[in-house]
Design brief:
The protein is of the alpha/beta class and about 250 residues long. The protein has a single domain, classed as Carbamate kinase, CATH 3.40.1160.10. Helix content is about 35%, strand content about 20%. The protein has helices at about 20-35, 50-60, 70-95, 125-130, 160-170, 205-210, 220-230; strands spanning about 10-15, 40-45, 100, 110, 120, 135-140, 145, 150-155, 175-180, 200, 230-235, 245. An 8-stranded mixed beta sheet has the order 3-6-2-1-9-11-12-10, with helices on both faces. A 4-stranded mixed beta sheet has the order 5-4-7-8. Helix 1 links the parallel strand 1 (about 10-15) and strand 2. The protein is globular, with a radius of gyration of 17 Å. Bound molecules: adenosine-5'-diphosphate (ADP), aspartic acid and magnesium ion (MG). The site of magnesium ion (MG) has 4 residues, from loops.
């Protein structure tokens, strides 16, 4: 079936806790199904499951005290590759056609150092073809390929940047960020009991929060969102409550 071009595009990003085990992968996949049934074309951006990225870092340190930066990016990029394959399987198991794509396959071009590269451009051809074929593209966050053909990662928390950059490149209606808290709070709700949930926050205020060390959104992703004007909805994977709009 060929889908009409007027169906809105939405990018849905699922963080590590949202894909930490098979139940959570299926529950996250069902969120994609629900939005798709409402008539949206979906690109899902997925992080590595649970704590796998940290475990890979420790694994490397057990071999080389200061791991080689090229090989470290090669290693860390595998975490997201696990997630995209399982997530695409989960979607197919609930009747949604899907294709998993690594960052390079999704056309994500990078520049800058290993472990801290930035997205320099996105060739959206392959993703657009998926959407035309009514397939949900399931893209690995946190990674891309530089001009030398090397796999590079986008800094910790870099799947947020992948999601926002794809939303901007595809002119998505908005970008949903699914995480393990119900939105953006005045402070880390896991550390400060009196932290309050914010229903709406500006790009500048969010950038300040991110730069002050709140890990809920990667700072670079907010700079990218402000540049393109893409609205972001940060919400919880484990509830259906409204989260926080960043716009
Ligand atoms: P994900 O794996 O989904 O990307 P992260 O661990 O990167 O999730 O970010 C979510 C975490 O950010 C929350 O569990 C929370 O402890 C932390 N956090 C820090 N500051 C804030 C804040 N101001 N609002 C919400 N969460 C925050
Ligand atoms: N897996 C990477 C990290 O743990 C990227 C991300 O989760 O956004 O930093
Ligand atoms: Mg994160």
């Amino acid at each position: 079936m060929v889908v009409s071009k007027i169906e809105p595009i939405v990018v849905m990003k699922f963080g590590g806790t949202s894909v930490a085990n098979p139940e959570r992968i299926l529950s996250s996949a069902n969120k994609v199904k629900r939005l798709k049934k409402l008539g949206c074309r979906i690109i899902a951006v997925i992080s590595a499951p649970g704590e796998i990225t940290n475990e890979l870092v420790e694994l490397a340190k057990g071999i080389q005290k200061k791991p080689d930066s090229r090989e470290m990016d090669m290693l860390l990029a595998t975490g997201e590759q696990i997630s995209i394959a399982l997530f695409a399987m989960a979607l197919k198991s609930i009747g949604i056609d899907a294709v998993s794509l690594t960052g390079p396959q999704a056309g994500i071009r990078t520049a800058g150092p290993f472990a801290d590269a930035d997205i320099s451009g996105i060739d959206t051809k392959k993703i657009r073809r998926c959407l035309r074929q009514n397939k949900t593209a399931v893209v690995a966050g946190f990674q891309g390929m530089n001009a030398a053909g090397e796999i590079t990662t986008l800094g910790r928390g870099g799947s947020d940047l992948t999601a926002v950059a794809l939303a901007a490149a595809l002119k998505a209606e908005f970008c949903e960020i699914y995480t393990d808290v119900e939105g953006i709070y005045t402070a880390d709700p896991r550390k400060i009991a009196s932290a309050r949930k914010i229903s709406r926050i500006s790009y500048d205020a969010m950038l300040k929060l991110a730069l002050s060390g709140s890990q809920v959104m990667q700072a670079r992703s907010i700079t990218a969102a402000k540049r393109s004007g893409v609205p972001i909805h940060v919400k919880c994977s484990f509830s259906n409550k409204k989260g926080t709009w960043i716009k």
